[in-house]
Amino acid sequence: MRPKMKKHIMDKIASKLLILLWTYTGLDKLIQFEASRKAFHNQTFPAELAEVLAYVIPISELLIALLLLFSVLCPGHLQAYSYPVSASESEREL
Fold first, then answer.
1. Could you give the CA distance from residue 11 to residue 19 in angstroms, rounded to a whole number?
2. Which of 53, 57, 76 is nearest to 65 (CA)?
3. Would you say residue 12 lies in a domain?
4. Could you give the CA distance from residue 29 to residue 35 in angstroms, rounded to a whole number?
5. For 66-89, how does the pLDDT look when each residue is reduced to its tens digit (9 = 90+)?
6. Rounded to an integer, what distance in angstroms lies between the CA atom of residue 31 and that of residue 68?
7. Rounded average pLDDT over 21-49
8. Residue 93 included in any domain
């Protein structure tokens, strides 16, 4: 198996595992919202921040899973956005 193909397969597997991880954690926090909210309030940061994080963290986790899913299902769409970044990084190395 060619190294490039092996890397591509490993990237797909890693992406799918991360999609499962972020989906599970986000949904778990939403399903058990009161327990999750109490856990945030049990941390050392202020109560106002804990309240905001109780809503923002699960939504962010599901958004990350959605973006990863989009990158797995439609890989060509994201390459158009990543090319200028990778080109500018290579120019810095010169």
1. 12
2. 57
3. yes
4. 8
5. 988 888 887 766 555 555 555 555
6. 22
7. 95
8. no
